[in-house]
Structures are given as C-alpha cells and as structure tokens.
Amino acid sequence: MPEQNIPPTIFHMLEKNLGKSIRVILDPAYGFEGTLAAVTREPPGIWLSNAEAIILRATIAQPIPQVAAREERSEIFIHLNAVQRIEVLHTPSRR
User: Is the peptide bond before 28 cis (omega within 30 degrees of 0)?
Assistant: First the structure.
C-alpha cells in the first residue's frame, strides 16, 4: 500500500513559524503581537514571548484595521478557541 500524505494541521503550520513574529487577532479591535515561542496541543494554544497587547482601529477612510495602541506584556498563553486570525509578520528586507 503506498504511503499517504497527511494534510498539514494548524499545529504543523504553527510549528513551522516558531521563532517568528506573529499577530494574533482575538476580536476585530483587540489582539497580541509577539514571537511565537511554543505550540501546545493539550490545551490547544500558543505561547508568545516579548508580547504586546494591541488595539486595532478602522475608519471609513481607512477600512483595513491599523494598530492604534500597544501595551507591553512579557509572555502570554493564548487558547486557540479564542483566536479569529493569526498573521505572520515579515520585517522589510534592507537593500
């Protein structure tokens, strides 16, 4: 029987991004930014280090939410049931 490829789960995709900066959106106006430090399966969640709580704002003129305020946090655990969206943040390359 040929070996079947297992489709990647959210855990596999998150583990590929360990050590990278990410933004985790919990609701349309609130989230966290930080470095992805660990992924846990029981309970399903992620640990962020060097985390910052962020407030997002959108206006009629600027409908894409932008970071309006930041507050320092050290490390934080976020349960995946509370997450709406996860974004990997890329730093601009210097040329």
Answer: no
* pLDDT, mean of residues 2-11: 69
pLDDT at 6 over 60: no
1 pLDDT above the threshold of 90: no
How many Å apart are CA 41 and CA 9, to the nearest integer?
Answer: 11
Q: Exposed, middle or buried: residue 7 (CB in 10 Å: 0-12, 13-18, 19+)? A: exposed
What does the radius of gyration of the chain's CA atoms come to, in whole angstroms?
16
Contact call for residues 21 and 92 (beta carbons, < 8 A) = no
Q: What is the pTM of this model?
A: 0.81
Confidence of residue 23 (pLDDT cuts 50, 70, 90): very high
| Best CA proximity match to 29, nearest among 62, 63, 67 | 67
